[in-house]
Structure prediction request, 255 residues.
Amino acid sequence: MTTADPTAPRASLQRVTALQRWTPMLWSLRIDRPEDFRFAPGHYAKLGLTGPDGQTMWRPYSIVSATDDPELEFLIVLIPGGAFSEPLSRIEVGQPVQLASALFGFFLEPQLAPGDTLWMLATGTGLGPYVSLLRSSGALDRYRRLIVVHSVRQAAELAYRDELEALAATDTRLNYLPIVTREAGATALSGRIPALITEGTLAQHAGATLDPATDRVMVCGNPDFTTDMRALLNARGFVPCRRGNAGSMLFEKYW
Prediction:
């Protein structure tokens, strides 16, 4: 006789409704959304799949969908040979996946003090929370300007590029700046975001300055990127968000 795992999260079984394969290893996955599932842009949820041993494996992923979307969308990187990625790589539309009921994360824009311009800086799948913010009606109404900077290695990894370019074409507040680092000429900008900020290139292309008096910065991506950005922004006078104290910069690490 088997017994339930007391450490397993409370969860529900949901159906995969759509798959977008940006590259063989970079996917967007959509699933049904429980009626009582409420979240804010920047939250992440845990998805569960059954492993070869019959136990459920769980992995956290940021929610990309709008807060009023009847489905939930996630931007996912598959890891070759990964215990979770292997069964996930075989999943198809219509098949089930478990969704944990609890929400996680503190990468929530309202923690920032009021400001004029919001910079949303991301590497790789760190773009996910910003897509959710931009899709959620009214979520960023307090800003006069919005600047999304997304850095990837190859142009094919610029998930949601068409959507963001279309949004920037209709919303005069938004400036979308894609960066490809390992494909010469793929984008107007090339190089690591911290270096582009230090040399002034990013501000020039954005038509804005990083001023802690008026600007707010969200940083989401790999640990080296977030570490470098924290040091750079600290040196420029930006203040981190603390529990109960609004700041001018907000960070989230991916992986």
